[in-house]
Amino acid sequence: MKTSLKYKRILLKLSGESLMGEQKFGIDSRKLNFFAEEIKKIHSLGVQIGIVIGGGNIYRGLNAEEHGVERVTGDLMGMLATVINSLALQNALENHGMFTRLMTAIKMEEIAEPFIRRRAIRHLEKGRIVIFGAGTGHPYFSTDTAASLRAIEIEADAIFKGTRVDGVFDSDPEINPNANLFEEISYLEVLQKNLRVMDMTAVSLCRENNLPIVVFNMDKPDNLLKVVTGKQVGTSVGHSTKKEELKTK
Ligand code: UDP
């Protein structure tokens, strides 16, 4: 029997920090292989997959000034860090038998293709996983914003934000054990309550372009598969929650 898919084209956002696993810095190959296995489960169902991976496990521009590095230079370093992670992920995916392309927002043609929207879509249609490296190519942005931008550009059905917690909570679940998980929440509520889903620029971009966000725990086996096939996992962020709709009726 053919598995029915809720999402046919997705943009998966993984943080750089998630690659550290138990380490304090860098890339844990076990984590990389785990992600590759999880991604393969949905790739084999025919889901078209774009991926943006952050660089926080290597360098963050925000912390640059503490080390006497100018912010813009620090951001460039951060964007290069995302390319290192992208190459590592590309390697892991190919080791697991998937075809991939790495496209970067900053040209580095010996390493990756430059980002060309129509070409990216063509790769996806051919079943290649496209990894988007070097963020937006501009300082003062984050890879969350890059992920939202690319998701909109490739006309993804949704952006999947893989995290190490189960979704969006009313307070930090790593600090408060009684924090409540939202199954659904609106963009507006996320912005007004300053909930840690993605940064404000990224959430606003999704809101303006009607791009659903699904926040889920990427560390739990099969979660990615469950989200793609429409099982209730994590938190969906959209225009309005059912509760809000009821209130306005
Ligand atoms: N960055 C940037 N422009 C972008 C994307 C990223 O300047 O469009 C830089 C920024 O310095 C950021 C770093 O790259 O701190 C790493 O990305 P991010 O912090 O988003 O990674 P994550 O938190 O997902 O690991």
Q: Can you tag this structure with a few keywords?
A:
Carbamate kinase; single chain; 9-stranded mixed beta sheet; alpha/beta; binds uridine-5'-diphosphate
What would you say this structure looks like, in words?
This protein has 249 residues and is of the alpha/beta class. The protein has one domain (9-248): Acetylglutamate kinase-like (Carbamate kinase), CATH 3.40.1160.10. It has eight helices and nine strands. It has helices at residues 29-43, 71-95, 117-125, 143-153, 187-192, 200-208, 223-228, 242-248, and strands at 9-14, 48-53, 100-104, 113-114, 129-133, 158-163, 184-186, 213-217, 235-238. A nine-stranded mixed β-sheet has the order 4-3-5-2-1-6-8-9-7, sandwiched between helices. Strand 1, helix 1 (29-43) and strand 2 (48-53) form a beta-alpha-beta unit. The longest helix has 25 residues, at 71-95. The radius of gyration is 17 Å and the shape is globular. 45% of the residues are buried. The model is unreliable at 244-249 (pLDDT under 50). The site of uridine-5'-diphosphate has 24 residues, from helix 2 and helix 4.
